[in-house]
Amino acid sequence: MPTYDFRCLTCNHVFSQKLSFSERKNAACEKCGSKEVEQLFRRCNVLGGTSSVSGDITGGKSACSRTGGCSGCAGC
Known about the structure:
Pfam families: Zn_ribbon_8 (PF09723)
Distance between the termini: 25 Å
Strand order of the largest sheet: 2-1-3-4-5
Order of helices and strands: EEEEE
Number of strands: 5
InterPro entries: Regulatory_FmdB_Zinc_ribbon (IPR013429)
Largest sheet: 5 strands, antiparallel
Radius of gyration: 15 Å
Helix content: under 10%
Domain Putative regulatory protein FmdB zinc ribbon: 1-42
Number of helices: 0
Protein name: Zinc ribbon domain-containing protein
Strand content: over 45%
């Protein structure tokens, strides 16, 4: 089962939970119990051939820095 990262919009606590893909929408803060959470997308590195892509994606916004060509990174 995958691990997803979240930030609580009520108390600003950052936490991880192992949830199925369909259970992500039911995540609750482990500190205060609030269901007002946003999923975080952490740094990822994609290496393939002569190109590499790395970047942070948080709250649906991408800040990628590329070296070489991009070969279809889903995060950009």
